[in-house]
Amino acid sequence: MAFFRKYKKTSASSAQQSQNRIKSYRLSSGLKENLAKIQSTFCDTPDLVIRKLVIKQTGSQAAVIYLSGITDSKAIFNNVLDPLLFKNDREHDEADFKVSLGHIREADSWPEIEDALLNGETVLFVEGLAEAYIYDTPKFPSRSIEDSPVETYLAGAHVGFNEMASVNVALIRHQIHNRELKIKEMTVGERGKTKLSILYLADVVNPEVLKELENRIKQLNVDSIINAGVLAEYIEDQPYSPLPQLLLTERPDYAAAQILQGRIVTVVDRSPTVIIGPATFDVFFKSIDDYGSRWMVASFIRLLRYFGFFIAIFLPAIYIATISFHFEVIPLKLLFSVGESRERIPFPPYIEAFIMEFTLEMLREAGIRLPAKIGQTVGIVGGIVIGQAAVEAGIVSNIMVIVVALTAIASFIIPSYEMSSAIRLVRFPMMILASLFGFVGIVVGFMILIGHFISLESLTMPYGSPAAPLRFKEWKDVFIRTPQWSLEQRPTATKAIQKTKAHSRPPGGDDS
Amino acid sequence: MKMAKPTLTLPQYIFLIHGVQMGVGVLTLPRETAEAAGTDGWIGIVLSWVLATAASLIIIQVMKNYPKGTILDLLRHYFGKWIGIAGTILFSLYFGIMATVIFIREALFIQAWILPRTEVYILIALLSIPSYLIVRKNITILGRYSVLVFFMTVWMMIFFIIPLKQAQWLHLLPLLKEGWQPILDSVGTALFSFGGFEIAFFLYPFLQKKEKASMGIVIANTLTLFIYLIITIGAFVFFSPDEITIYNEPSIVMLKILEFRFIERLEIVFFAFYLFVISVTVLPLMYMTVYCTSQLAGEENHRRHLIWLLIIAFVYVVLVPPTFDQNKLLQRLIEQAGMVLAFAFPLCIWAYLLILRNIKRRGN
Amino acid sequence: MRQSRLVQASLFVFLAAMLTGCGSHVPLEDLTISLILGVDLDEKNNLVISESSPVFNQDAKQNIESYQLKAETVRDSRKYFDALATGEVTAAKIQVLLIGKRVLEHEDWFPVLDTVYRNPTFSLNTRVVVVDGPVSDVMFYVPPDKPQMPLHLKEVIDKNIDRTRAVISTLQVLHRQMYESGMTPSLSVIKKEKDVEFTGVVLLDKKGKYVDTIDAQNSAFLLILRDEKKQELTLTIPMTSLGEGGGIFHKNQISFDVSRVKTDVKTSYNKGKFDFKYQIAMTVNVAERLFPAGRVNQKELEKMIEKELKNRLEDMVKKFQANKIDPIGLGIHARAYQYEQYKKVKPHWDEAFAESNIDVSVDVRIKSMGAVN
């Protein structure tokens, strides 16, 4: 690790040096030289547009340059070219090249110009001026705001993030109208120059946690952040863990809810997913639906999810362990049916289990990769045909098919995709341990899991809270969810500086 | 990565101590006390609790004299470097042997009850993996582990309540069958089961709220007492007083009769889960061992020592295949040493410190 | 830090490699799971062990295989069974342990079962049942109209326990009763006539030797004395004080459900004898009454039932005392309340029991007469 860090530092400083060198390249005051320079920098760039013109106001030679495709051409025609070409307003003596746009700035170095062009801005060079005007005209191709296809909920807003950071930030702002909602912008990536916006409530979030997150992002030196998952993997605490330590979501209402709990949301430009931290184990089992539906229903579903968690990890292992080691724990009547269905199977239980579990994982992956309509066919072929045929051919037992199906369903009811994938992965070592040592193996595996779980941290905050360290008071919103008005405190695991939320007692009080 | 000084909350402190006290003793406790005092044995357990609590409180009193450090620092501070080193060696030997004995006993039990076809050394190797992963961290993590495991395993006590529908409560009568003498004899054996609170010597400096140290250790002892009482009395009313001494581990035999519609032979499941209970005994002991040895070697990190400890345990098992008798003998020996460390030693130091303070006051 | 990860990784690989080399276990389908174990003596008093286990194979004509053979001990028999059966024979799921009555006619047969208690594989919930006749009759009997024998036997015994007719006699309980000095063992008994049927309870003496058999109704009385009523307890008794019922139908019969029974024993020691006073309080619902309503009112009926029960219970206790057996466990009461005296007679409690005064008083309350008057 230390070795890595050293490497990061040296490369960061060399990048700075080269930047300084470029900075010395100032613009020249001759339009021709500038245009030549632009053309040499952006050679093989067919979408570069250079429009030479004479400014009516001053009569000077000038050129408007932009990259078509990522700029708003209407704005350029109407608000830049039109006033420059035709307007002749003599009210002011000084030539200030009036255009009707909100955001205008000036730049005098080549790197700035380059950045501006690549960001979809329009650059105006004027003969005799050693600086250029930059007009804010970007319009990247983007999709409209839709419900997220990955995270589907019953309750909550049917709005998902899209690929524009500005839109995503706006969507969160829409949920939290508060001046304490602060946004810190950072840029990451040598080539990609990904804009990150860190959103938090200034009077709630713990400044140390925020600083830790910023530090980790600052230390990054990568080509580009393609999506939020890449960034999450770079900044999480323990990359060797199977468990996800940062939340990823595509839903602004969920992100806003987490900000209100004292967490920090990092919006990654060009990615429809945002990163939320610090996370604890239990947040991966919560969904926005839990708060939208009535608390008894929500509590029941929560319990179901935790139950599903254990089933998904341990059921195949328990099957292997009981069949190969501890058949005596099976009640007699069940033993008869298990025995009858196992009798024809030529493989030991662990091979049988591995065959089926791998088949299931392949089916699942195939379902994702295929278009939705064919995906369903795969499900049917896999589920019914293979399952049925395998049993009839005597390759796997009926019980095994039930076990596999149960595990699959159990792992799918966990709202976080990252967590449910992690669980499916953990299942395999458990199966190996169970096939070697039976129940003892499972317990040892469980012990390893717990040992890992209690020492894990997310942005230096304990991951296991409120189970380890134990905080019984916060169990109101872990395995069950008590009514809204009883949830007055923000979780300790975020170390929020303002612990108590705005809250009220239920209407009517005791006598209702 | 910041290296904050590890601390313990009150529950972590309580359950660490309680966890070390539980362990393998509880399986044989009903037989051992019944051998000495018949069905009055449980009174002996209550008496041992009184003694253990008194000794625990003395330990806290001793530690109050030097709240910043462990007993090793205290010894060095009051008695000089050499006695400090001697104390460190003694403690590390004590904890090391204790940890190894129980660790091996755990493997022996598994082999005897669930996996008769697996070699003991393979089980030791298997159990080493989680042990290493947890003990290599700091005391806070161990504290969290103890707390979590306690709440994960405390429901297993229900298993001891269910067989009581076959219970014959008349077995407990009359009280004081043979007078007090056999009960006092049973205190001798029952006291061993309370051993383990001496790790308070090492936990005290890490505790966040030092003023609650006494209360915490009393709670830990009482919790242990309750669990012992439930199991012992449960076994006494379940078995006939004439047969209980025949079973080696009556606590497990009691569970053998449990069966539900969906699961039978619960003792197997129970035993597998019981590994958790034993682990909260063994892991803190291992931690204490490597804590002492790394202090001795002047190293910050105890990982290397831990690896060595586990390797030594493994090699020992390969070279000298353990048997129950040999293991029990070792346990008896180390428990007697433990009695000295847990009862006599704190008393002596406490007396010494009191005298020292009096002399100083008079000098002033 | 990097180096230590390398060490860790290699350590794990080493461990994993070592651990994988040790998977020596037998999966379920390769086992022959004994469900009944039989212990008997043949005519020449040789130990005969038999077992019966299910066959999962669909090609097999019968779904159960049974073997019987001579062996020195129970454990020793396993090697012969292994020679006969398809899979490895395992004892972990034995449901019923059948003991031939011939075995019980000899003293000190109990050590034969030593392995059952010593070996953790055995279940202690196995029902111990005495067979009145050769064990092989039951073992090799394949009823055409019933589930497999082991299941059937276990259900029959369990049902009778629930109905308070059979004593609980698992291996664990037998062990307790064999070692308990204040009680003598009792076991359920079955018989193979046309079918295998539950017939009652056998009573053994301190050394395990057979003494007496009582039928199902009397075992219910035994259980009342032991205060071990289970889910349901129904008694059918004739009201002898109403005179002989006429005709072929015994018209003086009455049946009642005992909904609650509380048995108290007062223990005292007088003039060198133990004194036990039973006070049995019952709440009953009449379930069947063959004589007309007008003949007795409710109070009288209660008195009559009390008298009948008292007679039967006292007769039974007298019989126990005559046989010098204490299946009720009065020795436990003596130990709890008269420890000093009990200690003196402990080694020969059966003698002291035979001499002690036991009297029974019954208090019956009729809660309901049922749906018709």
Q: Which fold name corresponds to the CATH topology of chain B?
A: Amino acid/polyamine transporter I
Which segments of chain B are poorly predicted (pLDDT under 50) over 5 or more consecutive residues?
Answer: none
Could you spell the SSE succession of chain C in H and E letters? Answer: HEEEEHEEHHEHHHEEEHEEEHHHHE
CATH superfamily of chain B: Amino acid/polyamine transporter I
Helix content of chain C: 25-40%
The helical percent of chain B reads over 70%
What fraction strand of chain B?
Answer: under 5%
**What is the count of distinct domains of chain C?**
2
Number of strands of chain C: 14
CATH architecture of chain B: Up-down Bundle
**Proportion of strand residues of chain C:** 25-35%
Rg over alpha carbons of chain B = 21 Å
Chart the SSEs and their pairings.
The complex is a heterotrimer of chains A (512), B (364) and C (373).
Chain A: H1 2-23, H2 31-41, E1 48-54, E2 61-67, H3 73-86, E3 104-107, H4 110-118, E4 122-126, E5 132-135, H5 165-175, E6 181-188, E7 194-201, H6 207-218, H7 228-235, E8 247-249, H8 252-260, E9 264-268, E10 274-277, H9 288-292, H10 295-324, H11 332-342, H12 349-369, H13 372-392, H14 398-412, H15 417-455, E11 457-458, E12 461-462
Antiparallel strand pairs in A: 1-2, 2-4, 3-5, 4-5, 6-7, 7-9, 8-10, 9-10, 11-12
Helix pairs in contact in A: 5-8, 10-14, 10-15, 12-13, 12-14, 12-15
Chain B: H1 10-21, H2 25-37, H3 41-63, H4 71-79, H5 81-113, H6 120-135, H7 139-153, H8 157-161, H9 181-194, H10 200-203, H11 213-238, H12 250-256, H13 266-297, H14 303-319, H15 324-363
Chain C: H1 2-20, E1 31-33, E2 36-41, E3 47-54, E4 64-70, H2 74-84, E5 88-90, E6 96-100, H3 101-104, H4 114-118, E7 127-132, H5 135-139, H6 149-162, H7 171-179, E8 186-192, E9 196-204, E10 210-215, H8 216-225, E11 234-238, E12 253-270, E13 273-289, H9 298-323, H10 330-337, H11 339-345, H12 349-355, E14 357-368
Parallel strand pairs in C: 1-5, 2-6, 6-7, 7-8, 13-14
Antiparallel strand pairs in C: 2-3, 3-4, 8-9, 9-10, 11-12, 12-13
